[in-house]
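lol forgot to send this yesterday, sorry. struct tokens for the thing we talked abt
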């Protein structure tokens, strides 16, 4: 894969129309953050969309941050694993997966993790809320180690850092502009905002990312941000790539009801 990525990043002077290879279809899904209800609705919509379209070699890319903040991270992890058994689903590691995995052994990281949505993740694994509320940090860490299955930890540890398909590069947060791919540290791929978000020059590939919340997909030509705030805005977005076309499907919570439909963005 690295050879293909280097090929993309060698096109610095060109701005061709970005595309995925003929016969392929890609669904990239933004940050789920424990919203199993939205995730299930979007999965159903993607499956229906793919079934109604011309047969293709279809890949689903989950852009990371499956866990934290929303109410059912454990359910999202289980659903993602189950979906992966039935079709080609590739999953990127987000900064919240990084914090989660480190929290099993690092108490300082655990404190940080719990302040930024980890509490909801811990509770989703069946830890009693009242016991959690009275627990010291060492107790919370012990409960995590006892309650979170090793199968889940191993599954999350296997998430990828970057995925290249056609003229697109999928990462969780972004890349450090003007830095070779082989030098991109995971701290950039999982955590970066600036200078990536404001960088206007071509990257050599169109970067599809999550991590930073936008009210609607943020297509800047050189990058497309599709974290639309599932946990806070009730909106989970998928970018659909086929040939040189781009379209969107979103699952939305409105007045307690969830629907999933294609989305047409204003030009």
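and heres what i got for the seq, position by position
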């Amino acid at each position: 894969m690295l050879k293909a990525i280097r090929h993309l990043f060698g096109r610095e002077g060109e701005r061709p129309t970005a595309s995925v290879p003929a016969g392929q279809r890609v669904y990239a899904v933004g940050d789920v953050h424990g919203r199993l209800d939205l995730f299930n609705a979007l999965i159903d919509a993607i499956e229906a969309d793919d079934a109604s379209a011309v047969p293709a070699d279809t890949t689903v890319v989950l852009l990371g941050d499956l866990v934290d903040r929303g109410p059912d991270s454990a359910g999202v992890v289980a659903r993602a694993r189950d979906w992966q058994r039935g079709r080609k689903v590739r999953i990127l590691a987000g900064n919240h997966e990084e914090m989660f995995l480190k929290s099993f052994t690092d108490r300082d990281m655990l404190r940080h993790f719990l302040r930024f949505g980890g509490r909801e993740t811990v509770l989703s694994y069946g830890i009693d809320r009242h016991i959690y509320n009275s627990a010291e940090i060492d107790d919370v860490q012990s409960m995590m180690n006892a309650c979170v299955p090793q199968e889940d930890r191993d599954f999350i540890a296997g998430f990828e850092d970057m995925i290249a398909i056609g003229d697109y590069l999928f990462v969780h947060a972004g890349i450090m502009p003007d830095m070779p791919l082989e030098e991109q540290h995971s701290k950039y791929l999982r955590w970066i905002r600036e200078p990536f978000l404001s960088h206007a020059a071509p990257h050599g590939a169109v970067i599809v990312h999550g991590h930073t919340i936008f009210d609607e997909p943020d297509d800047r030509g050189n990058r497309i941000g599709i974290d639309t705030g599932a946990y806070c805005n009730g909106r989970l977005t998928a970018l659909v790539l086929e040939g040189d076309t781009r379209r969107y499907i979103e699952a939305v919570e409105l007045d307690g009801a969830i629907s999933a439909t294609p989305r047409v963005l204003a030009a």
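Residues 107-124 form the longest helix (18 residues). anyway ping me if u want another try
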